[in-house]
């Protein structure tokens, strides 16, 4: 099988070195590394599922579900990072380590400017009611804000994973946006607000990645003598590399024999 190459600037550390760090420091770096990896993946995935719309509401509904599942999950992960720092530095901090507490406080201070945008308000509201929470009360509140022009179909397919039910998306997501933007009188303005949400996700991701790098440097790299970054390349099968904004993920999965 032919292959291509992917290159990284990488740092290889041994567990024996990392275990010399204080447990609280190593735990914090591990959580932030976990979050940064997940959020990077979701950012990339959002590009790969952002298909152009077609002149068919049924197909567009399937596209929308994929796109909005990713952006909502992405938003939720970012808020989980904020909560993580709040628990480290709050009135009853989850650590007694003063260095870690200060780093958490500093991280929250650098997050403050991100709380002043309209994108933040949308992200916060959807995180509370429409991401990783299945809220009966929110569904009841949303019912009066559902647009009658929405898609309320139930779609099933012989290949597993292709089934989708946009009734839920209409009530739990679109109607929640309608509640939020009740006084916004044009589709153009609403689309602009949606883009502010996406822009907020990108800005908050940039904040997280810089924060992860800074804290990793302060708690780990400065304490380990053998820190050496190197450029390395690895062979990968053809198809492992591509532009996620062009080589998009299929909306539907089909069997090879299906036409």
3D architecture notes:
This protein is mainly α and 259 residues long. It is built from eight helices and two strands, in the order βααααααααβ. The chain has helices at residues 15-18, 23-49, 57-89, 98-111, 118-129, 136-142, 166-180, 187-219, and strands spanning 3-10, 230-237. α2 packs antiparallel against α8 (187-219).
- What would you report as the Rg, rounded to the nearest angstrom? 22 Å
Characterize the biggest β-sheet: 2 strands, antiparallel
Oligomer: single chain
From the spread of the alpha carbons, the general shape counts as: globular
Order of secondary-structure elements: EHHHHHHHHE
How many alpha or pi helices?
Answer: 8
Strands of the biggest beta sheet: in what spatial order? 1-2
Integer average pLDDT: 91
What separation lies between the terminal Cα atoms? 27 Å
The number of distinct β-strands equals: 2
Quick recap:
With 259 residues, the protein is mainly α. The chain is built from eight helices and two strands, in the order E-H-H-H-H-H-H-H-H-E.
Give the arrangement of secondary structure elements.
Blueprint: E1 3-10, H1 15-18, H2 23-49, H3 57-89, H4 98-111, H5 118-129, H6 136-142, H7 166-180, H8 187-219, E2 230-237
Antiparallel strand pairs: 1-2
Relevant terms:
two-stranded antiparallel sheet; 8 helices; 259 residues; 56% helix; mainly alpha
